Amino acid sequence: MADGIRIPDEIRPVDGRFGSGPSKVRPEGVDALSAVSRTYMGTSHRQRTVKDQVARLRRSLAEFFAVPDGYEVVLSNGGTSAFWDAAAFGLIRDKAQFAEFGEFGAKFAKAATDAPFLADPTVHRAPGGQAAHLRAEPGVDVYASVQNETSTGVSVPVRRVAGADEGALLLTDATSGGGSLDVDLRETDVYYLAPQKALGSDGGIWLALMSPAAIERAFEIKGGGRYIPQFLDLVTAIEQSRLDQTYNTPALATVFLAAEQLEWMNAQGGLGWATKRCAESAAAIYGWADRSAYATPFVVDPGLRSNAVATIDFAAGVDAAAVAKVLRANGIVDTEPYRKLGRNQLRVALYPTVDPSDVEALTACIDYVVPRL
């Protein structure tokens, strides 16, 4: 046991997984996957057995997010990193504008900057713990922002850019916000997310809720003759999704577990239920940090504090890395901060799979560990 500290069983969380991605997977989902292991796993992704699960995933996503008329649920392989490149090839005509306030926004901006066929983007930046915002700019045909910055625990509302050129698209990175934070999809053209966050699944695919305008843009750009690698071709992803399949073999377990999680959340009350549950977890950890003598929320502005991922700074006299090490030795895992942020802090996922009572228990465990280090 790290530093010989053993946390009493009676104050530990029932489930000690607090990772921001891969996140906690519900045991019931794993049990359901095990039950179909002989009929689903290891079978052809072009046959009904798998296509039915893709259809279930798409249908459940549409229900959960109350997808507006004309919007389509599109999925493909590769995760959010692949989607950034796909969007650079298939959604940006010429010039994009980015709001960058963490690693996720920075990576998409870099993909557009590096694309030799695009104009240099405009990038509005803010330091970690703060938010950058989009603003209307002539000639910009794609605006892109992050709903929830996984690296820093900052979240911003999803809203269209007032005064933007007619036809300009808004792309919203909901990698970790989707499923934990409220959204009106009419305020964006592409709302894309990953299954290994709030959807309590594994990685390997990306999911996008696309407006008619975004779908039209993808077909327009491809029809204009731009070279697009097949793996990153959004038109291919759209057409294959309409058939409830992917261009190449998807991660079958990921598809199934995400569908299971969405059906569970829909049965609880959908997005409204999920956001309320995440807000309860957020109130527990931020309230504790506000009362603590040695911990404070990293995000100073309460209006920017995420209900999906909480980042908590520790006073100079408390080694957060040592706290995380003791927690891990006691079965409470993945509370370490984002590596590149380089702060003396813990980062805690507040996704719908995480019970608010376990977040409260986590804070009690931290209070037990700190004076004993």
From TrEMBL:
Q: Which GO molecular-function terms appear in the entry?
A: alanine-glyoxylate transaminase activity; L-serine-pyruvate transaminase activity; O-phospho-L-serine:2-oxoglutarate aminotransferase activity
Q: Which reaction does it catalyse?
A: O-phospho-L-serine + 2-oxoglutarate = 3-phosphooxypyruvate + L-glutamate; 4-(phosphooxy)-L-threonine + 2-oxoglutarate = (R)-3-hydroxy-2-oxo-4-phosphooxybutanoate + L-glutamate
Q: Where is the Aminotransferase class V domain?
A: 138-333
- EC assignment: 2.6.1.52
Which pathway, metabolic or otherwise, does it act in? Amino-acid biosynthesis; L-serine biosynthesis; L-serine from 3-phospho-D-glycerate: step 2/3
Q: Entry's Gene3D superfamilies?
A: Aspartate Aminotransferase, domain 1, Type I PLP-dependent aspartate aminotransferase-like (Major domain)
Q: What UniProt keywords apply to this chain's record, in alphabetical order?
A: Amino-acid biosynthesis, Aminotransferase, Cytoplasm, Pyridoxal phosphate, Pyridoxine biosynthesis, Serine biosynthesis, Transferase
Q: Which family does it belong to?
A: Belongs to the class-V pyridoxal-phosphate-dependent aminotransferase family. SerC subfamily.
Q: What is this protein's name?
A: phosphoserine transaminase
Q: Which organism is it from?
A: Mangrovihabitans endophyticus
The gene behind this protein is: serC
